[in-house]
C-alpha cells in the first residue's frame, strides 16, 4: 500500500537520514530573497550550512530568474521598513514630549528616553544606508553567485516553455499542484514572459524533476512558499508536501522527494549534517517568515478591498450617469408638458371658434382652414402624449435600475468594510 500511496506516509528517521546523506538540495527564489531580511549573523550561519553541502546544492533556473527579478523590490521594501520604524520612533518621541497631554512622562526620564531614541534612529539610519547600498554593491548577491557557481540549472527553450504553459493550463484547471493558486496572475497579458509568471511554480517543479532524472538522485526542495498548492494544510497546520507531488516525483524519477521551509531545513541540518545551528537563528527565521506571511495575507485582503472599491466606484459612476440621464428626461418631460398644455389651450380656442363659425352661415367659408388647423393641433397633441408615455416608461426603467445599482453598491460597500476589517485584524 505504501508503494502505491507514498505521499500519504511519513518517512522514518532512518529513511530521512538516508535521503539527507545522498540527495541534492534545490532552493526556491524566496529562500535567496529571505537572506536580505535576516540579520547579519543569521544570514552568515545560513550560508555556512549551504557551504557545508555546496557539492550537493542546486538552483533551478526559474528560481534564479525570480530571484533577480525580485531582488531590488525586496531591498526597497526593507529600506521602507527602516523608514517606517524611524518615523514611528519620531512620532512616539513627539507624543511623549508634549507635557500638556496624556501620556505624561517626567522630564528626567524623558531626557533619558530622548537619548535612546536618538541612538536608535542613528543606528537604523546607518543600517538603512548599508541596505540601500546593496542596490549597487550587493555582497549578498555576490555570496549567492559564489555558492551557486556551476550549480544553477539551464533554462528551458521557448518550445519547451510553450509546451509547459499548455500543460500548466490543464493542470491548473484540474487543481493539480504545484502552482494552481497562481492561476489568476497575468491572465490578460500577451507578453510571453508575463505568461510564464503565472506558471512559475510549475516551471520550477518541472526543472527539479528534470534535475533528479539527470543525476538520478532524490531531491529535497527548500521553499518558504506557504500556499496549499505546495503543502498539505489541515486546520491551519502545515503537515508536509502535497501527496500528489511526492507521487508524481516518484513516478517520473523513481527517486524520493521531500520539502522543507527554511527553519525546518536548518533544524534537520543540525540533526543530519552535524551542523551547529543556534535556536535563536531558527526562531528569527520563523519570525521573518511569519511577518512575510502576514504581509502576504494583508496584501490579499487589501487587493480584495481594492477590487470591491473599484466595483463600487464603477457602480457609483454608473448611478451618477443614470441620474443625469433621468434629469435630462425630466427636463424633456417638462418641456413636452408645457407644449401639451399650450396645445390643449389652443385646441379649446379653435373648438370655440369652430362653433362660432358654424353658428353664422355667412362665415362658413372660414371654417375649412380653422378645422385644418384644429386637426393639426390635435395630431400634435396626440404625438406629444405618446412621447410622454415613452419618456415615462424610460424614466421608470432608469429609476428601477438606479434602485438595483444602489442595492449593489451597498453590498460592495459592506464587502469593502469586511476586507478592510480583516486587513486590520491580521497579526
Number of helices: 13
Please tell me how large the radius of gyration is: 37 Å
* Low-pLDDT segments, ≥5 res: none
Overall 3D shape = elongated
Which strand order spans the largest sheet, edge to edge or round the barrel? 2-1-3-6
- Summarize the biggest pleated sheet: 4 strands, parallel
Description:
The protein is mainly alpha-helical. It has two domains: 6-277, no CATH class; 307-425. 71% of the residues lie in helices and 5% in strands. It has 13 helices and six strands. The protein has helices at residues 13-22, 29-34, 40-52, 61-97, 107-133, 139-147, 158-173, 192-198, 200-215, 243-253, 262-272, 279-358, 367-425; strands at 24-27, 57-58, 219-222, 231-234, 237-241, 257-260. A four-stranded parallel β-sheet has the order 2-1-3-6. A two-stranded antiparallel ribbon has the order 4-5. Strand 4 and strand 5 (237-241) form a beta hairpin. Helix 4 (61-97) packs antiparallel against helix 5 (107-133), helix 11 (262-272) runs antiparallel to helix 12 (279-358) and helix 12 packs antiparallel against helix 13 (367-425). The longest helix is centred in the last third of the chain and has 80 residues, at 279-358. The protein starts with 12 loop residues before the first helix and ends with a helix. The relative contact order is 0.09.
Amino acid at each position: 500500500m505504501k508503494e502505491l500511496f507514498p505521499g500519504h506516509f511519513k518517512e522514518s528517521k532512518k529513511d530521512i537520514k538516508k535521503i539527507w546523506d545522498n540527495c541534492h538540495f534545490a532552493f526556491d527564489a524566496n529562500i535567496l530573497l529571505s537572506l536580505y531580511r535576516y540579520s547579519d549573523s543569521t544570514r552568515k550561519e545560513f550560508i555556512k550550512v549551504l557551504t557545508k553541502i555546496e557539492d550537493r546544492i542546486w538552483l533551478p533556473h526559474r528560481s534564479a530568474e525570480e530571484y533577480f527579478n525580485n531582488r531590488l523590490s525586496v531591498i526597497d521594501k526593507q529600506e521602507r521598513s527602516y523608514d517606517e520604524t524611524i518615523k514611528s520612533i519620531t512620532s512616539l518621541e513627539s507624543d511623549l514630549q508634549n507635557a500638556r497631554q496624556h501620556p505624561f512622562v517626567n522630564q528626567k526620564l524623558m531626557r533619558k528616553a530622548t537619548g535612546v531614541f536618538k541612538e536608535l534612529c542613528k543606528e537604523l539610519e546607518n543600517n538603512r544606508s548599508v541596505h540601500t547600498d546593496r542596490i549597487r554593491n550587493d555582497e549578498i548577491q555576490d555570496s549567492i553567485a559564489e555558492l551557486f557557481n556551476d550549480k544553477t540549472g539551464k533554462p528551458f527553450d521557448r518550445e519547451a516553455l510553450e509546451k509547459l504553459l499548455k500543460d500548466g493550463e490543464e493542470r491548473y484547471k484540474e487543481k493539480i499542484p504545484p502552482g494552481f493558486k497562481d492561476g489568476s496572475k497575468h491572465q490578460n497579458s500577451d507578453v510571453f514572459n508575463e505568461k510564464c509568471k503565472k506558471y512559475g511554480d510549475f516551471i520550477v517543479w518541472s526543472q527539479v524533476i528534470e534535475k533528479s532524472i539527470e543525476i538520478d538522485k532524490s531531491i529535497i526542495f527548500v521553499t518558504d512558499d506557504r500556499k496549499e498548492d505546495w503543502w498539505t494544510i489541515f486546520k491551519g497546520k502545515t503537515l508536509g508536501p502535497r501527496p500528489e507531488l511526492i507521487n508524481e516525483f516518484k513516478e517520473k524519477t523513481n527517486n524520493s522527494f521531500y520539502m522543507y521551509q527554511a527553519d525546518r531545513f536548518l533544524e534537520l541540518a543540525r540533526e543530519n549534517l552535524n551542523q551547529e545551528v543556534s535556536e535563536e537563528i531558527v526562531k528569527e527565521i520563523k519570525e521573518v517568515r511569519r511577518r512575510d506571511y502576514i504581509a502576504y495575507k494583508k496584501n490579499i485582503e487589501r487587493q480584495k478591498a481594492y477590487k470591491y472599491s473599484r466595483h463600487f466606484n464603477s457602480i457609483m459612476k454608473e448611478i451618477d450617469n443614470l441620474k443625469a440621464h433621468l434629469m435630462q428626461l425630466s427636463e424633456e418631460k417638462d418641456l413636452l408638458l408645457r407644449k401639451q398644455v399650450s396645445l390643449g389651450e389652443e385646441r379649446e380656442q379653435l373648438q370655440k371658434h369652430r362653433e362660432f363659425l358654424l353658428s353664422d352661415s355667412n362665415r362658413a367659408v372660414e371654417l375649412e382652414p380653422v378645422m385644418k388647423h384644429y386637426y393639426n393641433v390635435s395630431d400634435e397633441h396626440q404625438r406629444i402624449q405618446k412621447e410622454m408615455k415613452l419618456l415615462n416608461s424610460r424614466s421608470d426603467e432608469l429609476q428601477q435600475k438606479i434602485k438595483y445599482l444602489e442595492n449593489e453598491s451597498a453590498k460592495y460597500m459592506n464587502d469593502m468594510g469586511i476586507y478592510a476589517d480583516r486587513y486590520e485584524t491580521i497579526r
